[in-house]
Every structure is written in structure tokens, then in C-alpha cells.
Amino acid sequence: MAFYDVGAQQNAGTPSTYSQGILASYNANLFLQVMWQVAPGAADPQFLLDLILDSGLDTRSGSLEVKLIRDMNVVYTPITTTATPVLPFGGAAAWTCGDRVFAWKAYTPDEGSASGLFDEALARFNCNR
Q: Could you give the CA distance from residue 42 to residue 73 in angstroms, rounded to a whole number?
């Protein structure tokens, strides 16, 4: 699946940059979103997790998992969403990398898919601090 730059699509003059950005990808069976912003000194990425969750659509449906993965503080939670009836489940996560904080969200058709998708995404993530 190809990602598109949400900021650039909304306003061609404001594409994503090193400092902040939002990318998204979707098809009939999956929606993915990743965002980031500069946050020097931030050790707790939960503020960006709260930001990526749409308060009118997304609900945490499980306990928050907190992990240290490859020297990155990572938080993950399963979610349910009313954004689309065909993708009612998902997950959301956030982590710190150097001077930036990243957040990730997926909408899936079943409860079990999002966690594995996040594990795969984070395994491919390269933090060059």
C-alpha cells in the first residue's frame, strides 16, 4: 500500500517535513496513519498517542502496553472505531526517537490484526537519532 502526505493533500504549500507530518494509506481492508513531530526531551510519547486517536471516533478497548524496544519508549493500545463500519477494530501506538515523537494507528476488520501490523511496522522503523 502506498502512503500519501495528508498535509500536502490538504494544502500543497504545507507538505510534511522533518519537524512534523502525517502520512496515511488505505484500501478496502485496512487504514493506516502515521504522524510525527519534534519534541526535544520528550520521554513519554503518550501525548501523541492521544492526538492520533480521534476523540469522536476512536476508543481504547484494552490496557495500555508500555515497552522499551531498541532504546525507544513505546506505548500501544487496541482500539475500536466508528470511523467506518467495515473496519471497526484496530490499534494505536506512539514512541520516541531522538528529538521526535511518532504515532501510528490502524483500522482493521478484526480484533487481532493491528498488533501484528504494528510489530511489523516498528521492526522496519529505523531510529537514526
A: 10
Domain boundaries along the sequence of the chain: 4-124
Q: Output b/e per residue, 67-82; b: 16+ Cβ within 10 A.
A: eeeeebbbbbbbbbbe
Query: How many Cα atoms sit within 13 Å of 127 on the Cβ side?
Result: 19
Are 90 and 117 within 8 A, CB to CB? no
| In CATH, 4-124 is 2.60.40 | no
The string of pLDDT tens digits covering residues 58-102 is 999 989 999 999 989 999 999 999 999 999 999 999 999 999 999
Going by DSSP bridges, is the β-strand pair 100-108/20-27 parallel, antiparallel, or unpaired?
unpaired
32: number of Cβ within 10 Å: 21
